[in-house]
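Researcher: Sequence of Acylphosphatase follows. Predict its structure.
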Amino acid sequence: MSKVCTIAWVHGIVQGVGFRYSTQREAVQLGLTGYARNMDDGSVEVVACGETEQVERLVAWLKAGGPRSARVDKVLTEPHQPGREYVNFGIRY
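Model: Prediction complete. Tokens:
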């Protein structure tokens, strides 16, 4: 099993609808580390680190629309090399 980190930017109606909290819950269930945070442009940035298959499952969940209250228009992803190792999946402000 290989470990990877992916950074994603989720665009649409994703702020003020519990998106970061739902993403955190989903990531914890998948055993991932990283964070979710709101960006100034209205998007949400998600960094997810863990087993390749689990990270791919979270990205698929994001692309499928995340929580019911959100509307996801697009998700951009790229591999990520974090400057440090995350110990949990947090919410940043």
